[in-house]
């Protein structure tokens, strides 16, 4: 365990031989090429234009790798030492694409820029550490090309933006985010916040017992969250509608439903009835405002219409709960 924190068991970069530096560069180019290819594959279906950028970058990394291998064969022979980034103390690491999913345009472009900047610094430092003229020349050339690689990707992006392709992809990405996360999450938040008002406040005014009210609110919130989540998963597999993974939508709906109900159930952990009820009512107003804001921000619903729908529905359910609780 201590080796992970103090770097023991790893080589210092300054202790690497020229052959080992060359082997490290080869393995790094191989890894970067595979990462770019994975980015391209992950984006191809929804963002084909951006996938083409990463195809170009993967092809260029493969060219770099082949040039490094050719030089290694000429200087050291066919046996390339197995040395990777994780074998060198303080060396940057790469996250595989499956650790940063879901892939998004901005996320992948930002990570690609970071990768190229790191590779540029590596080649500059490696060139300083070598004395062989051919190796130093190649490492220096690759440092320049890695710096240009980032500019090439930006140029391709600008060309696509000029043609309207990038704007369409960003718009599509936002639409997919809304369909997969915002829409089911909003439905869940509305269901959890509004539908649990009646049972929670009915229990509060009927019993006057804060602990019993909290248990009822907890069970109603969790039960509604589970029900809403499974309903979302079963209602649409996302293939025809394009709403995305049913599992993601189910989690979004279920979690937000539970949060919506727990918001005004948690105040009843306070033993004083009127203090708990006052805080719960304040929380209800905050929840309704949040729902109104989300509808306006993401669903482009006019403020007045969103507020009228949410406040009217919440007020009717709240009144029903109070009336039933006092019956």
Task: Present the secondary structure layout.
Layout: H1 2-6, H2 18-44, H3 48-76, H4 105-129, H5 133-163, H6 165-195, H7 197-207, H8 210-235, H9 246-263, H10 273-298, H11 303-325
Helix pairs in contact: 2-3, 2-4, 3-5, 4-5, 6-8, 6-9, 6-10, 6-11, 7-8, 7-11, 8-9, 10-11
Structural features, described:
With 327 residues, this protein is mainly alpha-helical. It folds into two domains: 162 residues, Ferritin, core subunit, four-helix bundle (Ferritin), CATH 1.20.1260; 154 residues, no CATH class. The protein is built from eleven helices and no strands. Helix 4 runs antiparallel to helix 5, helix 7 runs antiparallel to helix 8 and helix 8 packs antiparallel against helix 9. The longest helix has 31 residues. The N terminus is likely disordered.
